[in-house]
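Dear colleague,

Thank you for sharing your sequence with our group. We've completed the structure prediction you requested, and as agreed, I am returning the results in plain text so they can be pasted directly into your records. Please verify that the sequence below matches your submission; if there's any discrepancy, let me know and we will rerun it promptly.
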Amino acid sequence: MRINGKPHKTIWLNEDGWSVDIIDQTRLPHQFIIANLKTVEDAAHAIKAMLVRGAPLIGATAAYGLCLAIRNDASNEAMEKASDYLNSQRPTAVNLRWALNVMRNHLLPLPEEKRLNAAYEKAALIVEEDIETNRMIGVHGLELIRQIAARKTPGETINVLTHCNAGWLATTEWGTATSPVYHAAKAGIPIHVWVDETRPRNQGASLTAYELGHENIPHTIIVDNAGGHLMQHGKVDLCIVGTDRTASNGDVCNKIGTYLKALAAHDNNIPFYVALPSTTIDWQLTSGFDIPIEERGPEEVLMMTGVKAGGGETENELITIEIAAKGSPAANPAFDVTPAKYVTGLITEKGVVKATTAGLANLKSELSNVA
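Please find the predicted C-alpha cells below.
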C-alpha cells in the first residue's frame, strides 16, 4: 500500500541483505520512522513493545527474528531457545506460534550449515504468502460489499464500521478487515469507513485512519462508544473486524471492545463479519474462552501520547501526558472474545465460511498448511 504515494510493505530486508527493517508503528501517525532489527532481541522487543502488531505481521517478524538468531548459532538447542523466547513475547495472537512452528519444522531436518539461507528463504515465503492470502480475503469480501450495494440506490455509499487496526499495517499487505474496503474502492464502489478510535492505544485513530487517508478512502474517526448509536440510526451497512485468534468453533478473539460492537450489530440486524487468514485459527481450541487474554500495563489507560496541539516548532514532537485521576489504578485487558453466534461469517482466503464447528471443519479440509 502507499504512504505519500510511495508503495510500502510493513517488513522487508535491509539493503545489507540480512538485517530487517520495519515501520515503527508506535510513532504513527505523527512520525514515519524505520526501525532496523539486527538481533533476535531486537525482534522480540519490536513484538513486545508493539513496534509491530497485528497477528500476521507479528508472525512474519518472529520468522525473521529466528533468522537473526540463526546468524549467531544454528544449532538445535539455540534455535529452540530463540523460538521459545520469541513465542513468549505476546500470548494471544496464534500467528506468532504458527510462524515459528513453520520455521522450525522446515529447518530442523536440515544440516546446520544450510539453515541460515533456508531460514531467510522461508521467512520471505511466509511474507509473500501472507500478501496473497490478504489479497484473496479482499476478493471474497468484495462480493459481500457488492451484494449490499446491489440493494441500495445506484451510487449510494456503503458504510463499513471497523474496530482497531486490521489493515495493511497489521499484516504484510492489504490487511484483513480493510482488504475488502480497498478492493471495493478499486472497483469503483462508493465506500466510507467508520473508524473506531480503539482505546487505549488508539490503533483505529492512529493507524487505520492513517492508512485509509493515504489511500484516499473516505473515513471518519469515532469514539469507541458511538458505534451502537450509528447502527441504531441506519448509518452502518456492515461491520468488518479482524481477529488475533479464532477457535475451531468460530469464537473470535480480537481487540478489546469488539464484543460490544458485535452485540450492537446483532441488536440492529447488521451483518458482522470477521476477516482472517486461516493461520489465525487455533484448531486445537474448541472454545474462544480458552484463549489467553493479554493483560497490558496500566500506563496505556492512564496516559496518552500525541503531539502538541497547534504545531509550531514542536509540530511532530511526541509527548506523553497523564489523563486520569492521580492514584487511581487501571485494568487493561487487551482483547475480548466474541461468541460465534454473533458472527455473521468468517472471510478467509478460501471464501466466506460460517462461524461454526462444521463451517471451520469444511475449511480445514481445504487447507494444506494446517499443523
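Summary note from our side: The chain has a mean pLDDT of 95.

Kind regards,
the structure core
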